[in-house]
Specification:
Elements (H helix, E strand, L loop, with lengths): L1 H7 L4 E6 L1 H12 L3 E7 L7 H13 L3 H15 L3
Parallel strand pairs: 1-2
């Protein structure tokens, strides 16, 4: 960033990262106030109840109805301790 600032005169930067590069861009933005924006693709996520439920829902809806019924039955059985 120092080189770009010297050569081009930029004082604010946008970083783009894919996978581990997204994580690197995130850490760069935390460390350098000149980074004013991020594009993060396929980086990390913060697991919450919503993300877990959404992930399960997407998995279930991509399966045939018979597999869906079996998965729901197994989930209910394990939830009630059976």
């Amino acid at each position: 960033l120092d080189l770009m600032q010297r050569e081009v005169g930029a004082s604010r930067f946008l970083t783009i990262g894919i996978c581990s590069g997204a994580v690197n861009s995130y850490h760069l933005a935390l460390a350098d106030p000149r980074v004013s924006g991020l594009f993060m693709f396929d980086g990390f996520f913060f697991p919450t109840l919503k993300t877990h439920l959404l992930r399960r829902w997407l998995r279930l809806t991509r399966q045939p109805i018979s597999a869906l019924a079996k998965a729901v039955t197994q989930s209910l059985a394990s939830a009630v301790g059976g």
